[in-house]
């Protein structure tokens, strides 16, 4: 019994789905046959393959689908224009040969040249292969860019957190500066008051000292 996968689709799974489906389109098969073939390869149901194709993969391969349809049309036209397998007669009547010679009619007038070009088919198929490879490389590049974007977003979140932390530290520093500045001004005011009080005290001490003067006889007298 085949185990049905339930995991997510990978880019390689999408590429296999695209290659098989395009081959069936190119060869004139049905998409259901393609989905069944892909389901057997990937261990998935045909319905899951069809849903994946219509919902996600198909839009990435619109150009390749048009190329595959054109190849299918050319293939059908080539089959219609393919020469019949009727055997040519081994002997001819002399009168028939004379008649055909006189009128210059070609012996195989009913044979048509195929319109379909094998070289054109090969070139178109190579174009599809290149397109699929480019799509695979593009998918890898998109995944890489998504990973880089996630890393940049994480880095941006970290930088924002650091910025917020630095803003908080700056606010604390400004607050501390304001407090220190106010304390400094208060200290200056206290020192200024102390200096003024010291000057006043010195003046009072000078006024409190006794004063003397000399009289006419040369004696010192205290002046109150």
TrEMBL record:
One BP term from GO: methylation
Bias (Polar residues): 81-100
Region (Disordered): 71-106
Coiled coil: 128-176
Keywords tagged on the record: Coiled coil, Methyltransferase, Transferase
Recorded superkingdom: Bacteria
PANTHER family: PRESPORE SPECIFIC TRANSCRIPTIONAL ACTIVATOR RSFA, PRESPORE-SPECIFIC TRANSCRIPTIONAL REGULATOR RSFA-RELATED
Protein name: Precorrin-3B C(17)-methyltransferase
């Amino acid at each position: 019994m085949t185990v049905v996968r339930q995991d997510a689709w990978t880019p390689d799974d999408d590429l296999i789905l695209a290659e098989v489906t395009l081959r069936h389109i190119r060869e004139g098969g049905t998409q259901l046959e393609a989905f069944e073939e892909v389901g057997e390869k990937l261990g998935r149901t045909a319905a899951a393959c069809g849903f994946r194709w219509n919902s996600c993969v198909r839009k990435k391969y619109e150009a390749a689908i048009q190329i595959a349809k054109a190849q299918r049309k050319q293939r059908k036209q080539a089959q219609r224009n393919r020469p019949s397998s009727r055997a040519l007669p081994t002997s001819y009547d002399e009168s028939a040969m004379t008649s055909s010679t006189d009128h210059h009619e070609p012996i195989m007038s009913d044979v048509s040249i195929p319109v379909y070009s094998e070289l054109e088919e090969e070139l178109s198929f190579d174009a599809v292969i290149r397109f699929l490879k480019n799509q695979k490389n593009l998918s890898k590049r998109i995944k890489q860019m998504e990973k880089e974007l996630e890393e940049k977003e994480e880095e941006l979140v970290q930088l924002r957190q650091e910025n917020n932390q630095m803003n908080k530290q700056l606010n604390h520093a400004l607050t501390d500066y304001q407090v220190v500045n106010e304390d400094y001004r208060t200290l200056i005011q206290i020192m200024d008051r102390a200096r003024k009080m010291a000057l006043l005290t010195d003046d009072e001490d000078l006024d409190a000292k006794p004063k003397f003067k000399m009289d006419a006889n040369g004696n010192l007298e205290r002046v109150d």
